[in-house]
């Protein structure tokens, strides 16, 4: 652990659980990197992700965006290509893009595809799956409403998904954001995760939650911030 990280960690009071109003200014004070660090939320859930009926997954549009514009590629045909271009997609194509990806092209953050193109796009599973880039109807990236999908991603749509250890880890903005905008984004994300609670989940759904910057230590949040 470096000197700067130890100095940042020393600012967190042992045993204290922070409200967002106190946690966000502290996170910003503790950020020591030379770049504009990403602020992230981590939620420890009381679910067993190995069971299909306890999977937690969804998307939410953060009201204040993420502070960076994602590069969006759309695979579609006909008039849907024009719709995607008008909505602001960075690149739009059809079967030719499937071949480009097979050839190693992965210069994008989000891939959106129309359902009629999924037979071809489905062959890219081994390439896109491990990178979290495979289009999925549950996250709104397999849709005929390509214009709306592109606009939502550009506006700050993020995906959350519980990992195999029962943890959700999601970016919610940048250290340079005003406090109130970060707090609004964090609350929006937490509310979305709470709404996604599986009916099969028993006992306490959110066991703990933390917020921190890319390089800084995580600040434990008070239960009042995440208990519905």
Automatic annotation (TrEMBL):
CDD domains to which the protein is assigned, alphabetical: Ribosomal_L1
Lineage top rank: taxon: Bacteria
SUPFAM superfamilies, sorted: Ribosomal protein L1
Swiss-Prot/TrEMBL keywords: Repressor, Ribonucleoprotein, Ribosomal protein, RNA-binding, rRNA-binding, Translation regulation, tRNA-binding
GO annotation terms (biological process): regulation of translation; translation
Keyword Cytoplasm on entry: no
GO cellular component: large ribosomal subunit
Single annotated GO MF: tRNA binding
PROSITE patterns reported in the protein's UniProt record: RIBOSOMAL_L1
UniProt keyword tRNA-binding present: yes
Pfam family, one: Ribosomal_L1
Record InterPro entries: Ribosom_uL1_bac-type, Ribosomal_uL1, Ribosomal_uL1-like, Ribosomal_uL1/biogenesis, Ribosomal_uL1_3-a/b-sand, Ribosomal_uL1_CS
HAMAP family: Ribosomal_uL1_B (MF_01318_B)
Family label: Belongs to the universal ribosomal protein uL1 family.
Biological role: Protein L1 is also a translational repressor protein, it controls the translation of the L11 operon by binding to its mRNA.
Binding partners and assembly: Part of the 50S ribosomal subunit.
Protein name as it appears in the record: Large ribosomal subunit protein uL1
Organism in which the protein naturally occurs: Chloracidobacterium thermophilum (strain B)
Gene: rplA
């Amino acid at each position: 652990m470096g000197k700067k990280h130890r100095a940042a960690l020393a600012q967190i009071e042992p045993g204290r659980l922070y409200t967002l109003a106190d946690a966000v200014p502290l996170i910003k004070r503790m950020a020591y990197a030379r770049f504009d660090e990403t602020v992230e939320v981590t939620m420890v859930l009381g679910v067993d992700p190995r069971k299909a009926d306890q999977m937690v997954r969804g998307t939410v549009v953060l009201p204040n965006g993420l502070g960076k514009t994602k590069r969006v590629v759309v695979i579609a045909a006909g008039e849907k290509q024009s719709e995607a271009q008008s909505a602001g997609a960075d690149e739009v194509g059809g079967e030719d893009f499937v071949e480009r990806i097979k050839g190693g092209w992965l210069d994008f953050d989000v891939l959106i595809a129309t359902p009629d193109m999924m037979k071809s796009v489905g062959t890219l599973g081994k390439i896109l799956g491990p990178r979290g880039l495979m289009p999925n109807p549950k996250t709104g990236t397999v849709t005929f409403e390509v214009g709306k999908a592109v606009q939502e991603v550009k506006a700050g749509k993020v995906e959350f998904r519980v990992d195999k250890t029962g943890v959700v880890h999601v970016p919610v903005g940048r250290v340079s954001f005003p406090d109130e905008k970060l707090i609004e984004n964090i609350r929006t994300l937490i509310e979305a995760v709470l709404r996604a609670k599986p009916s099969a989940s028993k006992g306490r759904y959110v066991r703990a939650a933390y917020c921190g910057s890319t390089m800084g230590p995580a600040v434990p949040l008070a239960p009042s911030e995440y208990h519905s």
